[in-house]
Every structure is written in structure tokens, then in C-alpha cells.
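Weekly sync notes, structure subgroup
Attendees: PM, AL, DS (notes)

Item 1: joint prediction request from the bench team. They want all two components modeled as one assembly rather than separately. Inputs as received:
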Amino acid sequence: MKLIAQRLALGILLLLAVSVLIFVGTELLPGDVAQAILGQTATPEALANLRAELGLNDPSYVRYFDWLGGVLTGDLGTALSNGQNISEALGKRLSNTLFLAMWAAIISVPIAILLGLVAVQHRNGFIDKLISATTLTSISLPEFFIGYLLVYFIAVELQWFPSVSTVYDGMGFADRMSAIALPCATLTLVVLAHMMRMTRAAILNVMQSAYIETAELKGLSPFRIILRHAFPNAIAPIVNVVMLNLAFLVVGVVVVEVIFVYPGMGQYLVDHVSKRDIPVVQACGMIFAAVYISLNIVADIVAIIANPRLRHPK
Amino acid sequence: MSDELKYLSDRVVRGLMDRRAFMGRAAALGAGATLAGSMLSSAAFAAGPQKGGILKAGMVGGESTNSLDPATFASQVPFAFGHSWGDTLVETSPTGGVVNRLAEEISATADARVWTFKIRSGVTFHNGKTLTAADVVATLQRHSGEETKSGALGIMRGIETISQDGNNVVVALKNPNADLPYLMADYHLIIQPNGGMDAPDAGIGTGPYKVVVNEPGVRYVGERFADYWDAPNRGHADQIEIIVINDATARTAALQGGQVHIINRVEPKIVDLVKRVPGVTIQNVGGRGHYVFIMHCNTAPFDNNDLRLALKYAMDRGQMVDKILRGYGSIGNDMPINAAYPLFDEGIEQRTYDPDKAKFHFKKSGHDGPVLLRTSDVAFPGAVDASQLFQESCQKAGITLEIKREPGDGYWSEVWNKQPFCTSYWGGRPTQDQMYSTAYLSSADWNDTRFFNERFDKLLLEARAELDLAKRKELYSAMGTIVRDEGGLITPMFNDFIDAVSDKVGGYKVDPGAELMNGMALSKTWLA
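Output from the run, pasted for the record:
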């Protein structure tokens, strides 16, 4: 329990540190925010007015604590470029991103682990090599290439699923699933190999242990040994790599979003960076950091729970 | 054969035969997909507007930072969607004339200084309010005034007062301007209730479609407005939708897959491939937009006219149109004006690639060593390639051109209008006066060639007040020649607007004003 509390506290501390980094980082971006908003034709008076309005004349630590206070109370401020409420606009984008990531994970994680288990059972045999070869091929192709292949064959030639994955409120569940089919497939192909290889390696590692030999001598079936005896002891590294890939599914999908025109966080962030819309960039940065850190904490906690030695420390 | 094709396409239009069957029959008759496709669209056009359906466009040029406030419009998606929910006082026609919209009549005093716009009656806004002259006055005022952030401010500067006179709006100018009606066609000047003073980004206008969905950077939906004042001519589809698809491949795939009916900005390098797609027609038109290499006339070494001339003669314009635009464009003549402008003088001599003359002027300039050109792919599509071609053609004239690639992010704030020699583009303006006033008058906001020429300025003001068209044409011709021979502008090419349209769409007519029928495609076309 103490260990878990410690991890949580560390996570929060880390998030605070990240918030400082994000704030400093955005301060360092070249170009004046007021100038970026008003454009080339801005008069000096208008610039001065806007700077005062945005509080840009305050010292930076004051602005940092103002901003942090807002973030802690759930108020991310308003976008400088179009005056939209960031929490509202971002909430929609975030839920889209999470929706896509969730379905990609629901499909890819069980497949990856199952393939890993099968590969271990047939280790060094034809099936193992086939699984490794296909998943490694799919991870080696750049994701935009996989995306375009799927668009060409499945959307344009066969017309099974749409190439444009725009989702919106009030869309039926079936339509929504059909819309995300192709990006979801692309992401699955991209993350599959990493998780599958890690599962395979971790279980093979455990398979060297003496107690596996005992189990074999007891006459248990090979798949049962892998599933009941080896897998639980290999959970920690597997969960770690699964979490890493989940984090990628949330924060690293800009390219896939662009190809399939999916209204997620990535495109939203890129648009606002180019407009120097600092509050939005900061908000996105914080959310990405929070996702990364919390998924890692989950991985840690699962590892602790899975390991009796960590669960019952002396 | 063509009689049978015509018969078949008429059947499709009347709904007796579906498109796929038609294309199949046409193929059996031996007609190519393109011919059959164009038969179909002309038949759809001949049958007249059809009501109903959901018309969808996939467009590049939308960001999640966009707003519905017309004052902030800068990219293609807000431009096209704005034309769907709003109206301006006037519009420009494909032939370069002025069409009255919310203004019913336009009159001016003999000196073209005071203009009166009679406001159309019986027009309602989407919120039920009736359009009055006061709304127009408020709109124009919101876009003028020094504190405004409007993109139309530049063209509103010449206005002294805007006032209401019963059902009329009276605009008094500081100096005479015969082109004022053209200025009122600017896409920022959408008439809003009370000028949009209360809620600038509410998206309430008098246009054929009401805003239903506004998701910046993602998707816009408009629903036909029942009380639209010009219903017979516009607003044929029940609903329109714009899906923002910034990726060119994704845009083409969406059109091919039938998810959208119209796309903008087909890249020249894939036009020939798109042409082969059954059921899709390429609609391209030469416009006023041009790609440029700009030099600051007041910064060394470009402050020397011989050096500028040397670089102008070292530009192989034909090669640029062939290689960069793949033939979808026309060559430029080192001025921002071409035949798409009213009152263009065809008689001005075309400058051609001449390495010998380039060599001569380069030597005369006394400049020694390389010339630095800054470029980036955001300057215009193919800008980096164009710079390299230019480097080669310069080399043949003995001029060493050094190319510096700049990051796309920040190019418009850090390089363009700051560095003395770079690549850029201009979208063009409806009239010569507006183009010259925007970027070539000494006091212009965007004088990106740092061109300060008293004689030119004087001619510009003179032309603005000149109501005799023949005389104006002469003045413009003189101005064009000055820019061509003394300016800091190298204009290798004018680019075409290239849209691709599904054959399900009827009523598509290109407009040199801008892409997508000058932004009006969604309100003027219909689903056949």
C-alpha cells in the first residue's frame, strides 16, 4: 500500500515538474503572442492593448501560478485565436482520441498477447517465425504508408469503409465504428509487433526457470504451463510495454489523424502551435503528460500487485 | 454514337437510369470516361437546378483555430463557408463585372467620390430580423476604424464616412475611387445583423444556408434557409457540408470513394491521374493568383535596378509553368496583373528568358558573388523545386544563386516581408487598383517589394479617379510597365485554380475570381 501511495505522490510531483517545463518551453517559443494573433497589420496601440488584456506584462512566475491555479480547478482558459473555451473544445477532441485509442487497444492488446503466447508455444518453429515476420513487417512500414495502402485498397477499390473518418456528435454507433475502422486497423498494425515481441521475450525468459521444468515433469500440457505458470510471472514487463503502446495510441497519432481526417487531439495541437496559441498548447501538453504519467503509474501498480515480493515487503 | 450518349445522359438526369449503369453503357459505346463524364454534367446542367440532397465538399484550408467572425477569415474553408451563410452587397461575376446582391442599385456622384447603395428590401436574416440599411452601415463600420482586426481594413481605409439615408447607405470616400463596388465584394464584408457588433462569430447572415454545425478545422454543416431571398438561384441542396481534409491524398481518396462531391486544390502533379477516375471532372480556371520571387528594392544588392533586371531576365518562365504547374497556369510578366483582370493591356511586351541580357545587366550592376534566395515549401506548392530550377537558369547566365531553405513554421512572420529576397505567392484581387494598392503603392500595408516610386503612386491615384475606361486602361498599362521594368517583383507564373467535381453535381461553372466558383459552389450547384 505504502509503495502504491509513494508511486502516486511521485506521479503528481512529476506532473508539477512537467507543468513548469511546459510553461517555460512555451515562453521560449519565438515570436510575440500578441503579434501572432493580430497579424502583420497590427498597430502598436492594438498590440499594447492586447498584451495588457492577456496579462503578458506580468512577471512570468505570476502568470505561471495563475495558469496552474486555473488548470487545477479545471479552467484551461480560452483560445487566443478564436476565443473558444479550451476545456470544451479540447474535451471533444480528447474524447475522440480516447475513443480511437480505446478501440485500437481493445483489438490490438489481446491479439498481441495471444500471438505472443502462440509464438512461445511454437518457439523457433514455422508459426513463430511467421508471426514475427508479419508483425515486424507491419511495424517497419511507416504508418502513413500503411494508412495509404488501406485507403487505396479498402476505401477506394473495395469501398468497404470510408477513407474520411470524421466523427461527430449524434453519429450512430455503427456509423462511428465504420468511420474509425481504417485508422483503428492502421494503429493496430503499428503497435502489434512491439507488444507481441515483448510478450514472447518475457515469457521465454520465465520459461528458463526451474519451476517450469518441474511443471513440465509433472506432465502439464505446454499451453497450460505458459498460461498458468509462466504468464503471471511475465506480467510486469508485458504490462509495461502495453502501457507504453497505449500512451503512444493517445499522444502519437498525429500522422494517422491527418491521413484519415480524424478530429483528434494531434491535429488540434498542431494547428494551435502554428498560431502560437499558447494556452491551448499548454493545455494539450499537460493532458499528454498526464496520460503518459498515469499510464506508467498504472503499469507500476500492476507490477507491484503481480509480484508477491513487492506486495509484501519486509 | 453521341446521340445515344445524349439520350442516355438525359435518362440519368431524369432519374431513369443510375450513374453506374450510364457509365457502363457509355463504355460499351466506346466513349472514354472523360467524355461520358462531361456529357453527364452538361446534361445535368441543361436540366436546370434540382432541389434536395446533401452536397458535400472536402477542402484544404481549415484549421481548428478558425472562427465564424468574417473579419478573421483568411483561409479557404471559412471563405467558402462564409459564402454559404452570408451575402455581401455585391459580387464579382466570372466575366469580371459587378453583380448586385444585397445592394439593389448603386449610384455615384460624377467624381466617383460619394457612392449610394440602395439596400434590397424583403431580405431576412437567419434569426428572423429584417435586413435594414442600418445593418449594412454597422457592418462596414465594424470592418473600418483603426481598432478593427478585420482582414478588410486595408480596403476600407479610403472611406471617410458611412451613413444611412432611409433605405440607402451612403459611402463618402477620401479620394475618388471608380472601383468602390468591387471593394464591397470582398469576402470579409458579409452583412450581419447590427454589423455583428453584438456577436461577431454567431454565423447569422442572409445566405442560403443556416449554420447548423460549426466545428473549426473538422466539419461545417449548413441547412437550407426557408426564407432565403434568392431561392430560385441558390441553395438547391437541402444541406451542405464541408469536411476539412488538409491532406491532398486523403482529399482525392474521399472524392474517389464518393464521400464528398467537390474538392479544392488538386495538385498539378496528380491532375492527369484524377482525370482518369471515372465519374470525376477536373474544373480548372486561370485566375489572378500568382507565384512570385520578391526583392526589396531598397536593400543591397537589390537596390540596383540592373541586378533586378538581371534576375528577371534569368527566369525561364515557360519552364516554370511546365515543371512546377504541369501546364496548369500561364506565364507571368513581372507584374502582378494578367488577362484575368479587367482593363488589362495585352500589348505590354512579354519578357522572356534571355541569359545574354541577364549576363549584361548583372555585369553592369557591378555586383560580385552569389545572390541569396530564401524559400520554403509553404511559399507556394513546389517553391523549393522552383527555386532550384531558377538556380539552374541563373547559372547559365553566370549568376550564382544560393538557396536557403527556411522552416515553414514562421515563414510568413520571419522571412516574407522581412528578408530582401524570398519566394511567396499572391491570391490576386478583383481589380488592378486593389492589387496595386495592396502591395505596390509606397504606403501600402504589404509593400513586400519595398517599391517606392512617386510616378507610380501618382498614376495610381489618377487612375482611381478616372471614369473613362479607355484612359484608365492606358494609365494601368503605364503602371504595369513601371513595375515590370523597375519593380522588385519576378512573376514567373499565374497558377490555375484546380477543383475536381463529381458528375453527380450539376451547375458547375468556373470563376477566375477564386477556387470553387469563387467560393459559391456549394450554394450555386445542385445534386443531379
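Discussion: The radius of gyration of chain B is 24 Å.
Action: AL to compare against the crosslinking data before next sync.
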